[in-house]
């Protein structure tokens, strides 16, 4: 679904952060992305989510050359890619329910048409009792799960998660991993950026490892 061929990226006139990156996200795959802090994991996720353009190389996304995707088409393609950001990006003045429903509301959907889906998804991530809470009173793990629910509400083909277990204890990390596995079994491709070796050891999945700007693939 997404393919990188010899992709390079530099910020402004700075050094090349990513060099000759080639890999794919096949439909229905489950992969980890790891590498030391500062290696460029978040930058790679931003390329995948089309919030950055490569400075060289080719990115093909759902069969289209990324360089030929116009501004008007971007939101349509992004909708197929759910992202859980490291800092969650929840809106504090909205409840958990409203945060998760926001992408649908923005598209002009009528609340009656999605209320049941949002509630069900929040129950699935274990936040059935926290629908009306605002982010400032949620724990780190609850915010993480709200962010996961928001990333999934439009049923994306791919879920990208940046350090989803970075701020949670080991039992919750295992629970989140189970959610990702369940999601993957239902057909969604999952890519998790993480430092957490313990987490990676729990799943027999391909590992993409970034170091010194280059990516190696370990099957
Ligand atoms: N907007 C930016 N402008 C300039 N340099 C940037 C920008 N964003 C990131 N960088 C640099 O790019 C490099 C890779 O950063 P990135 O955040 O992608 O790494 P990371 O592997 O996700 O790190 P961590 O695991 O600590 O989150 C770092 O040297 C960082 O300073």
Sketch the topology as an H/E string, one letter per element. EEEHEEHEHHHEHEHEE
Rg over CA atoms, rounded to whole Å, is: 17 Å
* Helix proportion range: 25-40%
Largest sheet report: 6 strands, mixed
Sheet-strand content, in percent, reads: 25-35%
pLDDT < 50 stretches? none
Give a structural overview.
The two termini are 18 Å apart. β9 (206-211) and β10 (214-218) form a beta hairpin. It contains seven helices and ten strands. The chain has helices at 41-48, 74-78, 96-106, 111-124, 140-152, 170-185, 197-201; strands at 2-10, 16-25, 30-34, 56-61, 64-65, 81-84, 158-162, 189-193, 206-211, 214-218. The protein has a domain at 90-155. Helix content is 33%, strand content 26%. It is α/β, with parallel strands linked by helices and 219 residues long. The strands form two sheets. The chain has a six-stranded mixed beta sheet, with helices on both faces.
Topology:
Elements (H helix, E strand, L loop, with lengths): L1 E9 L5 E10 L4 E5 L6 H8 L7 E6 L2 E2 L8 H5 L2 E4 L11 H11 L4 H14 L15 H13 L5 E5 L7 H16 L3 E5 L3 H5 L4 E6 L2 E5 L1
The protein binds adenosine-5'-triphosphate.
Keywords:
alpha/beta; single chain; four-stranded antiparallel sheet; 219 residues; binds adenosine-5'-triphosphate
